[in-house]
Specification:
118 residues; alpha+beta; Thiol Ester Dehydrase, Chain A; five-stranded antiparallel sheet; 30% helix
Length: 118
């Protein structure tokens, strides 16, 4: 049974590095001056960076695990320097629930599911 959790404090350097690797250099992720003028008031994480942290958590526990299907939503933003709680839970054989939430207020920043090879 998989039941994993970790804490992560995203940094602007991680947002910038993910933008460089992914090519997603949208100003909301990498430009603090621009982001300060948005409704968020600061830069926000790439959703796939959050998912990558969750997938990495799973890979540490189950090296080489393969995914067949994933779904995810990003209901709220994750911000640099604001702690995020990560969890991966096996809900049935080969089925996982992924969740990430801001520790400060409990807002979900990623909710998802995946099917993996058992």
């Amino acid at each position: 049974m998989i039941d994993l959790s970790a804490r992560w404090v995203p940094t602007q350097a991680e947002f910038d590095a993910f933008a460089a690797v992914s090519g997603d250099d949208n100003a909301i992720h990498v430009d603090p001056a621009f982001s300060a003028r948005t409704a968020f008031g600061r830069t926000v994480s790439h959703g796939m960076l959050i998912y990558s942290k969750l997938w990495g958590l799973l890979q540490q526990a189950r090296p080489g695990v393969r995914q067949h299907l994933q779904t995810m939503m990003f209901p709220n933003p994750a911000f640099a320097e604001e702690e995020v709680a990560l969890s991966v839970i096996e809900t049935a054989p080969g089925k996982l629930a992924f969740r990430a939430m801001r520790v400060a207020d409990g807002a979900e920043v990623l909710v998802g599911e995946a099917e993996i090879e058992c």
